[in-house]
Design the sequence.
């Protein structure tokens, strides 16, 4: 019998008031749960504006310990609604050591596991290497009451190696909290190419690994505090893809939206039987993948 999991995706805009952001998140999480979601996924760094547009030491004040106030809040929400909840926090691990960390709460409010973002970008308006120490927990799926979750974060979504390892370690699905968008100087054609590449890459992970993919992005315009750019227009477009890369549902590119999507946890078995990519992998011939480059 097919096993269906209702998954909620919270795509929202973010303002400077952290308390107000959290209140809105709780309302949206509750809306998803009231519509039947048993797993709810939030976007990357959802408590705060995307502070990585500038390098400013004062932004380290936004970081918090795990456990801490935010984990206490989201733990209570998960327990009250009896859902599994995927969050994304700016972790203060120690003085001078900070991570971009996904924390997963089980339906009883306990912390089921954590994932620290492994791939850290450093691009114009995405100065994450200034803030985040690369993750050191590896690519380890997190076991929960609704399944085993392969949680990765944003820039990780461009790396097939990360998705593959999560799949090989038993993930039932791949999950990507995300914060990505356009800079206003890009042409419309370039904007479309970027967004399409983002979607195609993640759908490709679904196909290559025979797993559903859940990707949750923020939406709206966030100004550059330095005024060096026109800020970022986050492109939303949160989506769920099935294990053959089929789009099950996709959110708006411009509007806040809560999606609740039926995801089959049984189809992966059927898909991997007809597309046996894991059977045919030439693991004896892949040693070059461990090199930085092959020339």
Sequence:
């Amino acid at each position: 019998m097919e096993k269906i999991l209702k998954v909620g995706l919270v795509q929202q805009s973010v303002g400077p008031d952290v308390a107000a952001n959290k209140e809105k998140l709780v309302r949206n999480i509750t809306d998803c749960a009231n519509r039947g979601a048993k797993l709810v996924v939030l976007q990357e760094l959802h408590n705060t504006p995307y502070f990585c547009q500038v390098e400013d030491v004062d932004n380290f004040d936004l970081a918090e310990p795990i456990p801490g106030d935010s984990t206490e809040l989201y733990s209570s929400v998960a327990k009250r609604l009896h859902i599994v909840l995927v969050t994304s926090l700016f972790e203060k691990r120690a003085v001078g050591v900070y991570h971009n960390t996904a924390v997963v709460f089980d339906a009883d409010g306990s912390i089921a596991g954590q994932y620290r973002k492994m791939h850290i970008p450093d691009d114009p308006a995405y100065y994450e290497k200034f803030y985040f120490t690369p993750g050191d927990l590896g690519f380890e799926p997190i076991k929960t009451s609704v399944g085993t979750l392969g949680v990765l974060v944003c820039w990780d979504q461009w790396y097939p190696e990360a998705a593959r390892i999560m799949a090989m370690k038993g993930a039932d699905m791949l999950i990507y909290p995300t914060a990505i968008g356009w800079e206003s100087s890009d042409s419309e054609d370039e904007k479309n190419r970027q967004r399409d590449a983002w979607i195609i890459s993640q759908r490709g992970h679904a196909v290559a690994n025979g797993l559903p993919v859940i990707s949750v992005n923020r939406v709206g315009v966030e100004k550059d505090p330095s005024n060096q750019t026109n800020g970022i227009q986050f492109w939303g477009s949160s989506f769920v893809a099935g294990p053959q890369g089929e789009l099950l549902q996709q959110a708006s590119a411009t509007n806040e939206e809560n999606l609740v999507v039926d995801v089959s946890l049984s189809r992966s078995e059927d898909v991997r039987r007809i597309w046996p990519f894991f059977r045919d992998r030439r693991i004896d011939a892949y040693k070059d993948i461990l090199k930085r480059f092959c020339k």
In short: Residues 95 and 230 are 32 Å apart (CA to CA). The longest helix spans residues 188-209. The two ends are 50 Å apart (CA to CA). The mean pLDDT is 97.
